[in-house]
Amino acid sequence: MSDFNKDDYLNDMEDAESLKNDPASAGSAPADDAKNADSAKPADADASAQAATDADTADNADKSADAGSDASDTDELTPLGKAKKEAADYLEALQRERAEFINYRNRTAKEKDVFRQHGIIDVLTALLPALDDIDRIREHSEMDDSFKAVATKIDKAFEKFGVEKFGVKGEDFDPTKHDAILHRPDPTADKETVDAVVEAGYRIGDRVIRAARVVVVSPQN
Q: Counting Cβ atoms within 10 Å, is residue 68 exposed (0-12), middle (13-18) or buried (19+)?
């Protein structure tokens, strides 16, 4: 067995400086990986920016196409077509205005009728006591010819404005238009009827201004 020579063994080993400068050493691999990763990052960022730019360009193109579609339809019309389109627009606006005017006219006509009726009711209500006195005088035949003429003119004037006088002895009792101030039982009566009219009733159309105040005959039972 040969003797171990320490100096020969140490001389055959590579020193630390030679290992550090050797390109094939193990320490060069991590540096290369980091360099490759750094070079890949700018490439990915450029690709993302390009994709965003392409998307914005597509959206702007769609908006421009939508905005230009209406204008292109008008531009494609001939002068005659444009004139017809304008005429149709004017006709539609005229019909709309006409419908609004008709609605306004109908509404004002109804309001006018309501105001007119209220005025007639106010005048009639104010004259009711005088009309009741005329009826009492007429009933007792204490009216001369001149007074009868005046009473007749008053009645015709109210008829002209749609005022109707009601309440007659012998008619059936109707609680919707008669105000019974007295009920008198009668063994011969088979239903409630008006026996006497104390004050006549007045109405305009279906609206009762004042119910007729009457004495009612009722069946005995």
A: exposed
pTM over 0.85: no
Q: Are 163 and 124 in contact (CB under 8 A)?
A: yes
Cα within 13 Å of Cα(35), Cβ side = 5
pLDDT in tens, 124-148: 999 999 999 988 888 887 778 888 8
- Give the CATH H-level superfamily of domain 163-220: Head domain of nucleotide exchange factor GrpE (2.30.22.10)
From the list 174, 208, 176, 210, the residue with the least C-alpha distance to 194 is: 174
Distance between CA atoms of 186 and 190, rounded to whole angstroms?
9
The token pair that represents 177 in the structure block = 């238009």
Query: 171: Cβ–Cβ under 8 A, 6 or more apart, which residues?
Result: 193, 194
